[in-house]
Design brief:
2 helices, two-stranded antiparallel sheet, 17% helix, alpha+beta, four-stranded antiparallel β-sheet, single chain, 112 residues
């Protein structure tokens, strides 16, 4: 079973290949991918490395967590599954509808 690790506190210049070569000291690396912004392609400063076995992944955590890599102290841990994304994170308006341009939608105006 493959095991994925989170690698944080990376330099922005680190590439997938450099990360793969570095972590291959602990075992067989299936994949190494630096997470990047979609629009600019710039690194976000963290990556995911996937190992062939859980034993190799644990060895990598033991070897590289809190170790220096290119002048930065790495944070290496087991990757957690992403949180489900919902659209319910928007502010609540209670029982009233949200206002648009300062006016309520159901406002009809005064008859004068």
């Amino acid at each position: 079973m493959n095991k994925k690790l989170y690698v944080g506190n990376l330099l922005y210049e680190v590439t997938d290949e450099e990360l793969r070569d570095f972590f291959s000291q602990a075992g067989t690396v299936i994949s190494a991918s630096v997470v990047r912004f979609h629009d600019s392609g710039r690194s976000k400063g963290f990556a995911f490395v996937e190992f062939d076995t859980e034993e190799e992944a644990q060895k990598a955590v033991d070897m590289f967590n809190n170790q220096d890599y290119k002048g930065r102290q790495l944070l290496v841990s087991e990757a957690r599954p992403p949180k489900p994304r919902t659209f319910g994170d928007r502010p609540s308006y209670g029982d009233r509808p949200p206002r648009r341009n300062g006016f309520r939608r159901d406002y009809q105006g005064d008859d004068i």
